[in-house]
Amino acid sequence: MTKAKKILIVDDEPLILRSMQKTLLRAGYQVVPASTCSLGLDSFKAGLDSDEPFDMALVDLNMPDFEGDEASGAGLELISRIQELQPGFPMIVLSAYDEVAKVKEAITRGARNYCVKGREQTLLDQIHTIFKEIE
Amino acid sequence: MDIKSLPKVLYVDDTPDARSLVRRVLAQDFIVLEASDPLNGIELAMQTEPDLILLDINLPHLSGREVAARLKSLLPNTRLVAFSADNSPGARERALAAGCDGYMTKPLDVDTFADEVKEYLQGKRDVLPDQARHERAYAAELVEILEEKVRELTKTAERNAFLIEQNKRLIAVLERRQRLLEAAARVGHVITSILDLDDLLRVTVDVICEEYDFYYAGLFLCDEPVETADAKLSKWAVLRAGRGEAGQAMLTNNYRLQIDENSIVGTAILNRQARIVLDVGQEEHRFINPYLPATCSEMALPLIVKGQVLGALSVQSDQVNAFSDDDINTLQTLANHVAVAVDNALLLRDLKQANQDLLRNKTFQAIAQTTGETIHWVGNKAAPIPSSVNRVREDLVRLLGLFQALLAVSPDQREQHPLWPEALEIFQTVAQQGFKLEPPPFIMPGSLESILEDLAIVEQSARSILVIKEDLIGPVRLQNVVSIHLPELLDETIFEMGLPGGVVKTEYEANLPPVSGDRRQIGQVFNNLIKNAWEALHQTENPSIGVIARYSNEPGFLEVLVVDNGPGIAPEMLEKIWVSFFTTKGARGGTGLGLSACMAIVNQAEGRIGVESQVGVGTVFTVMLPAVKDQ
Q: Chain B closest CA to A16's CA: distance in Å?
């Protein structure tokens, strides 16, 4: 049996974060939740340094920035930093419907896909597809 | 010598030089009084009663002889001497016959003149050889002169009477003209200070009737012009203000006149000039207004401003020939004032309307945005619910599986069952959570169904919230702005809707340029509007939906009108239809997001959406979209 894939989820909405975590756990993934951009980046770096690096990251677009100030779209910055550390690392952005411009920006920064929040089944399908593509 | 004892001589002559000479010559021996004309001479003579009067026979106004006769009769004791340059034959005789005591000729002899005067003072009297004959001749002559005078005076009196009559008339005319001009100025002043159109029209007819004393005045305005192939023409002149009870009755009955030559008002508007009928009885084909049966003369003046006829002023009198040229002139001046004031009031009204529209649009935009943000927030909060419900359902089924597995083994075997530790853990968790596990007092029938049903309710409610979020925000999420050929898009949209044949009638202006916007979204807007129209028509007998695409009055824009003949929207509802979740469809469905989403889409396309509706007549939705500029 192959080892469970390890996924990082970064979202500042605790309930959404927890719900996604549970959904992914049940789907058989290893999940590391992070509630801020900084914590998310720290977890990712820790993963890189360990013998169990992450296989994927799910990043919310709308989060306070690294300094903790309210800023919409700080998720973009996190995507860029992670892509700097590991170019081509698979990521999915979590968004609301009316964020087309930001979603496009996220894709150009290296995200593989986007998922509208509240559609966790769709999210699972997307994760599955991406892993299949990689293998 | 005492001056006062000197004899007084009055010298009547119209030449100053002659008077000055005589004064110098006589000053030594006489008190010299002077008069330059016979009337003054007679008056002075009466006041001073001189001893002798020297009279120039050739005087203006009255002939010297008449003066002589008059003086002689007034002052019979005063000596009267004619002093004349007239040496013609008979002059001396005529003077003496007229009553003069002596006759002296000019020029005077300085050396002898004073003495000659003294002689007459002392009683010298020139006597004619045939005095009686001369006196008769003079009397006859006098009678003749008097007759002539009487004739002249009679003529003059007649002429005076005529002139006085003329003057009276002129004064009356001038007074009336003055009054009318003042009235016109007053009306002009009053009306230009009124900005409300209805007030303006009402005050104008009242002031005209009061100032000019006409029994009726009315103001008509042309209705909205209808565009024809050649021009924009109004069909009706609608009464907007009328004097008195008749006016009130006409207004109540929406009185209007067709703009043609069958009415005086219609003719005035059509021909753009005043139409005046001084005796309506003489008119062959006159239209008789049942509200104003007493009218005998009537006038209609067009209200023209900037070359455009706005309407007409109707003035009516219960007398024939009631209008003078002055009336007509000043009323036309007044009509011009009224036209300008009406034009201003109309402009102001349009401006206010535009302002209100703008404000309303902004308000709805703000409401739509707030609603959108709220729904977004609520949607985000609801996002985890469906997944949570799924997991609860999954776990419930697992618990039931556990329940079943443990029930399947005998009680003494249960602790050996591989799932026993899991069951124990569940009981411990329940205890930790503070729940008390006790046997139920009764067995609840269908408790599992109830749990599943509740889960379904939670899940369904959460999904509704998420779907609405998508409906509201979804349409605006993607923008793929392209050039859209409106007639093509409209035809496509209508075709795809599959409405019964003949319901939708399209009317596209030729050669319309494309508009810019997201084709799919704009199509959704039209779909939504036509669908709304169709749903509004479900109880209308001959349902009809008009779809019109044409140039907008606003440069750079095209507009699409969706017109239905349905029940219309009540004015108080018109404000609400743009608000999210508002629906007029009641139980017949619809989330009520349609129009607010339409507004969001049209606003995003830099267009505008609006509605006009009349209960019982129908509704018109107008979508304005920007024409593609590089055309």
A: 6
